[in-house]
Amino acid sequence: MNTSSADRLSLTFAALADPTRRAILARLAAGEATVGELAEPFAISVQAVSKHLGVLERAGLITRGRSAQLRPSRLRPQPLKDASDWLGSYRGFWEAGFDALGDRLRPLDHEAGDG
Asked: What pLDDT sits at residue 68?
């Protein structure tokens, strides 16, 4: 992974660290929306939602239209795929760990069944 890919991945994970931003992405997965539409379900101001959108845009997770009035936001799935791919590279590690844990717990399960 080159430096710019690592930097993009860091921006993606930093953006995903906030639950409001994750909720915004979930909403955008259903289709584009304006700042006002995105702000409706939250107990925060339109300005606060706009700041969250700025973080998501800098991370490459969304694009925003250029219409001065509405600027609809759209989800960009590629950074999420990149994050998923990166996490997936550790799948073997976790599966091996869970398999080893299962091997250790299996005898205890048999003992509990014998008692």
From this structure: 61
When pLDDT is cut at 50, 70 and 90, the band that residue 110 belongs to is: confident
The arithmetic mean of pLDDT across residues 59-67, rounded, is 90
- Say if residues 13 and 59 touch (Cβ distance below 8 Å): no
φ/ψ of residue 73, rounded to 5:
-100, 145
Q: Quick one: which H or E segment has residue 75?
A: strand 73-75
d(CA 17, CA 20): 9
R_g (Cα) of the chain, nearest Å: 21
pTM of the model: 0.74
Q: How far is CA 109 from the centre of its chain?
A: 37
